[in-house]
Structure formats: C-alpha cells, structure tokens
Specification:
Blueprint: H1 16-32, H2 35-40, H3 44-63, H4 70-104, H5 109-142, H6 145-154
Helix pairs in contact: 1-3, 1-6, 3-4, 4-5
Length: 157
C-alpha cells in the first residue's frame, strides 16, 4: 500500500480555509494519480492504492464536513462513495482470485479443475465490475469532476 502524500507547505499561520484547500486538493491529486494505472488494469496494487487514497480523501472531507454546504458535501461524498464502491468491487475479486490461485497449488488434479471453474466465474465477474469502474472513471473525466471538486473545496467555510 502506498504511503499518503505529504501535504507540502502546510503552514499553521494560514487560515483553516487555506489549509483545508491544500489538504483536500493534495488528497484529490493523490487519488487520481493512480487513475491511468487503474484504467490499464495491469497491476492490481495500483487499483488498491487508488482505493486507499480515495478512502483517505473521503475521510478527510467527512472530518471537515461542517466547513462545506450540506448540499454540495452530499454530492461529492456520494460521488466518492460510488467510486470507492466500484474500486472495492474489483479489488475483492482481485484478492479472491489471488487466493484461489494460491490454494490451487496444493490440490490434486480433480480439485484443481473445480477451482479452475470457480476462477473462470470470478474472472468473468471481475471483468464486469472492471467495466463498470472504467465507465465511472471516464464519466468523472468527461464531466470535468476535477474542476467541480476544486470549486467545491474553494467554497469551504
């Protein structure tokens, strides 16, 4: 798991709004720094890192939710929740498939065939969830969610 990005130039002499803005945008940039690797789908750990970073972002926003308008907070919280759920759906399949592959090594030929069928079923389910995740990431990109999020963070306090 990737370590959280450091918040650069955080100054206790700045206003809460300035600090909150810097923290939120850093967490957002951290989350979406994993987007291209997640879209490629070649390394399951990149997807995991994106999920963890998105959870950090959402947790940070929830801590400071009183600093935002309720309506805008709910919108962004729901958007992040949906993204985290989509990432989690794919991640659950990744972890289960890895466990099945490891378990299969210790089985006899007949049992391996049964596990192979289960792996095929899980792989298909993973592909479905992955397609949904890719679609969600593309919607975020085409709807210019980064701009919307930045505007939301700027309206704090």
């Amino acid at each position: 798991m990737a370590k959280p990005w450091k918040i650069l130039d955080l100054n206790p002499d700045e206003t809460l709004k300035q600090c909150l803005h810097r923290v939120a945008l850093t967490r957002y940039q951290e989350t979406f720094s994993y987007e291209s690797g997640t879209l490629k789908g070649e390394d399951i750990e990149v997807l995991h890192d994106m999920r963890v970073a998105a959870r950090r972002l959402r947790a940070m926003l929830r801590i400071f939710k009183e600093c935002y308008s309720k309506k805008k907070f709910k919108k962004h919280d729901a958007r992040l929740s949906s993204l985290i759920r989509s990432l989690g759906n794919v991640r659950e399949h990744d972890v289960f498939l890895a466990a099945l592959e490891e378990h299969k090594k210790n089985l006899g030929a007949a049992d391996r065939k049964v596990v192979d069928l289960l792996i095929a079923r899980e792989t298909t389910a993973r592909m479905l969830h992955r397609r949904l995740l890719v679609r969600e990431l593309k919607v975020l990109r085409t709807s210019k969610y980064a701009d919307s999020f930045a505007a939301f963070v700027n309206t704090s306090l």
